[in-house]
Design brief:
single chain; 883 residues; 32 helices; 45% helix
Length: 883
């Protein structure tokens, strides 16, 4: 007898049940039960027809990958319907083709002219059928009719008895197939899962996360307290209405509940107490993602983010021995701040033996990979590319030298099956380029889910439509709110709506969906003796209610199910804690007076003592980020370098006044052009002529405006530019480099710092100044200071900002209105800097941002300082709130 199931999962469960019965009967060996999912049974019958010689060489069953490729080619060749997303459109058209064949829609129906979409699809479908007939192809959607016809002719041997189980409804072609078996004298039985409706209740929870946590807590409590749960056959079912959308959240929350110590890589634990039926696309598994990163990379123009993931991948040979150095190499490449880097950039850094990111093994792999890639023929057949892909991966040492766990082993096995499938596309695709080949392979890897096999688990997490024919000891059905169940109708966009309703296709009408939902609901409630139906009471900004199909179930509270509820659970943990609180905001003091960071040390200490300690003492700094074009830092560096060279020529206010307008414009033009050219060695954007021209015009305009403003100043001589000095501030030895120091005729200094963004002199004041850089320059000046200024060189705003006691020292800045002289201000800055320096030297590292909104907005350390957790507190009423 052959047992045909509606789903693969049901087939596996029935096979396990059969095997358990044989073991219980005391057997050591037994014949394998012939239990197959419907599609696998069709494939078996097809093979029989081939082996019997009925098909011979006249007909070939297309693989799913071939069908997708043919549909893509048809759509791409259809000049009347240009589309941007051909692969996605082909996938939708293939689904429509499946419905057309499964439900036997007539080709000559006038409804095909109802809409533009249906007319276009009709044209594509006729072309697909024409190509299939000319080439002797048979699509998978046409296979049931073909098998039925061969059975009717007596050409395919079939079993005397066939039993079907788990089918909520049969499609017309399935009915035709089983009717043909009956007409041939075969006995067809439909197994009915005989179980009366159990004890079912419903519960509303605040949101989806609370719902998932409640289900996890409920399942864990049953396993811990229910005596029946000790049986190896005990099964708890968790049915999730939208499992595909919230799979990640479900896995994370159940991992926290069942395996809190294995939260880093729960997918690699094959002995978990729960199993999620829905797999991931093959391309999303880390070991396969690393393979695609290798195949997609090019010797020129590799995105730095892509390269970083590849360098940090554990699935390349040498990853274990060069783990740290490869991570440092990633950081070094990011410090270039370029969106893309070349292979030569990587090799230039990796070969150096005097740096911590020296990676000799990686270097040899990259050279071998480049050589292999350079020798590739531009266009080849898919079967040739499949072999070459393996060569490229081998050159990079994929999948690594370490032992593979069970999941990785199964995943690589699936990868080889994928390559074999891709190699079979020669007759469909013909010769293609490397980029097209990799893209095609990636789409194949993303077209379906792959779930590695694991040990049976007592908690099974499934989607709604995977439960057909399954029975459980306990069942929780979540997501049953009124907006999700019954689901709204969603007719296929490519098939005529009138035709879909006429033939009663799935999702074609509200009546159809309601009837189907009633059937599935009754089946679910009857699949376990104890059932809990839950729904979120709120999603986004909408209030939700329980589905009308479950309104008759009695409503229960969390306590009745043995649940504490997430808030109460946290409260119970807090109340039961026994811990000693130690307030320790200090790290070890500085052993020496010197420290890295320069003037930024004082800025960070003022912003947040912990940030200063973490970045400068622990080295916890964020990676540099690339920007397209020139970053704000790049533009600032350009301004500094151009003005430094210009003042090297002019030398003083007198030199500026004595230079004519045309001569000055020429100096500016030549200096800007020279610096842009030099800077272009580091920034690829400046190698594009038009971009460089725009930046040249901008810089000339801003600098000309600035020099005109400097002409209005009192006489001065430029005495220092970017001069590095060793000084001591707040008891800490620093290396500083002021942008510029000018000496007035009376010998006093003017401190000047160029800014290309927003700036304000108010940033220098207070016990925790926002930017103490210029105050540091002022207190360490080698002569009395008459003024401290920002020179703001920003498009549309070129001006001086700062403090001085002298009227007309610089245009636009008047003496301070307060009674505090600049000497007194500098003395005050000295006191502030001394205190900040002392705090840093003593290791004071409290998590104490000056302004949380500003200080923490762009900080990269919230997971280290955990300030967000520290801000959460219990109010007087015991409610959990955000402070």
């Amino acid at each position: 007898m052959t047992l045909i199931t509606a789903t693969t999962r049901l087939s596996r469960e029935l096979q396990r049940e059969y095997d358990r019965k044989q073991v219980a009967a005391g057997l050591s060996t037994w014949p394998t039960a012939h239990i197959l999912p419907f599609q696998a049974w069709l494939a078996e019958l097809w093979d029989r027809s081939v082996y019997s010689g009925e098909v011979g060489g006249t007909l070939r069953l297309l693989r799913p990958s071939e069908e997708r490729a043919i549909w893509e080619d048809i759509i791409r060749a259809d000049g009347e319907s240009p589309l941007l997303e051909v692969p996605a459109t082909a996938a939708a058209a293939l689904r429509a083709w499946g419905l057309l064949c499964e439900w036997g829609l007539p080709w000559d129906a006038p409804e095909w002219n109802d809409s533009t979409d249906s007319k276009v699809f009709y044209r594509w479908a006729r072309e697909f059928r024409r190509r299939s007939r000319e080439n002797g192809w048979l699509s998978n959607a046409e296979l049931p009719v073909f098998i039925a016809d061969r059975i009717g002719e007596g050409a395919i041997p079939v079993p005397e008895q066939v039993e079907i189980v788990g089918f909520l409804e049969l499609t017309p072609v399935q009915k035709r197939l089983f009717d043909t078996l009956t007409s041939q004298g075969r006995e067809i039985k439909q197994r009915v899962v005989s179980q009366a409706p159990g004890n079912a209740v419903r519960i509303g929870l605040v949101d989806t996360d609370r719902e998932i946590r409640a289900a996890a807590e409920w399942a864990r409590r049953i396993l811990e307290t229910d005596t029946e749960a000790s049986s190896p056959e005990f099964r708890i079912g968790i049915v999730v209405a939208n499992l595909e959308q919230c799979r990640g959240r479900v896995e994370r929350i159940f991992s926290e509940a069942f395996h809190p110590t294995s939260h880093l890589r729960p997918d690699r634990d094959t002995h978990r107490l729960f199993n999620i039926s829905l797999g991931l696309p093959l391309g999303e598994y880390p070991i396969i993602a690393a393979a695609f990163l290798t195949l997609e990379s090019r010797p020129h123009g590799i995105p730095v983010e892509t390269l970083g993931r590849l360098l940090r991948s554990p699935f390349l040979r040498g990853a274990a021995s060069e783990w740290t150095s490869r991570a440092l190499l990633d950081a070094a490449l990011r410090s270039l701040r370029e969106p893309e880097v070349s292979l030569q950039d990587v090799l230039a850094l990796a070969w150096r033996a005097d740096v911590p990111y020296h990676c000799p093994e990686l270097q040899s792999q990259l050279i071998a990979w480049r050589k292999f890639r350079q020798e590739l023929t531009p266009h080849q057949m898919p079967s040739d590319w499949a072999a070459l892909f393996s060569g490229l991966l081998e050159a990079m040492g994929w999948p690594g030298a370490g032992p593979l766990d069970s999941v990785q082993f199964q995943t690589i096995k699936k990868w080889h099956e994928l390559l074999s499938d891709f190699a079979g596309l020669d007759s469909v695709l013909g010769s293609i380029g490397l980029e097209a080949a990799v893209g095609r392979l990636y789409r194949l890897a993303s077209s379906g889910q792959f779930q590695p096999e694991s040990d049976p688990a007592p908690v099974q997490i499934l989607g709604l439509f995977e439960t057909s024919g399954l029975v459980f000891d306990r069942l929780w059905i979540m997501g049953m709110h009124d907006a999700a169940w019954p689901p709204p109708p969603s007719p296929d966009a490519f098939l005529p709506f009138r035709l879909q309703r006429k033939f009663d296709l799935p999702r074609s009408s509200p009546e159809r969906e309601l009837e189907f939902a009633h059937t599935l609901t009754a089946r679910l409630v009857a699949s376990a003796p104890s059932v809990v139906v839950s729904y979120p009471q709120r999603a986004d900004d909408s209030d939700l209610r329980v589905s009308p199909l479950f309104q008759t179930l009695p409503e229960v509270e969390a306590e009745e199910l043995g649940l504490l509820g997430s808030d109460r659970y946290v409260h119970a943990l807090r109340e039961s804690r026994r811990c000693e609180v130690v307030e320790d905001h200090n790290g070890p003091g500085l052993a020496e007076a010197s420290a890295g960071g320069g003037t930024s040390l004082f800025k960070l200490q003022a912003m947040c003592p912990f940030k200063a300690f973490a970045e400068l003492r622990l080295g916890a700094t964020e990676l540099d980020e690339a920007e397209t074009g020139l970053s704000a830092l790049d533009r600032g560096l350009l301004i500094h370098r151009v003005l430094q060279r210009i003042w090297d020529v002019l030398g003083s206010h007198a030199g500026l006044l004595s230079t004519g307008d045309e001569q000055l414009a020429d100096i500016v033009r030549r200096t800007v052009a020279a610096e842009l050219y030099a800077f272009g060695r580091r920034r690829r954007a400046l190698r594009r002529e038009r971009f460089r021209e725009i930046e040249q015009e901008r810089l000339e305009r801003v600098i000309a405006e600035w020099l005109q403003l400097e002409r209005e100043r009192q006489p001065f001589t430029v005495v220092q530019q970017e001069a590095r000095r060793r000084v001591t501030v707040g008891g800490i030895d620093l290396s500083i480099r002021a942008d510029r120091m000018d000496r007035l005729e009376n010998g006093d200094f003017v401190v000047l710092d160029y800014k290309t963004g927003g700036c304000s002199a108010s940033d220098w004041f207070g016990a925790r100044p926002n930017d103490p850089q210029l105050p540091i320059y002022a207190v360490t000046a080698e002569a009395p200071v008459a003024g401290v200024f920002y020179g703001q060189l920003k498009t549309g705003r070129v001006t001086f900002r700062g403090v001085t006691d002298s009227e007309g020292l610089v245009p636009g800045v008047k003496p301070s209105r307060d009674a505090v002289s600049i000497d007194q201000k500098i003395d005050g800055w000295q006191d502030v800097l001394d205190q900040l320096g002392e705090d840093f030297r003593e290791g004071r590292a409290a998590v104490d941002p000056k302004d949380r909104r500003k200080s923490c907005q762009y900080c990269a350390l919230p997971t280290l300082c955990r300030i967000n957790e520290a801000q959460r507190a219990w109010d007087a009423g015991g409610e959990y709130t955000d402070a």
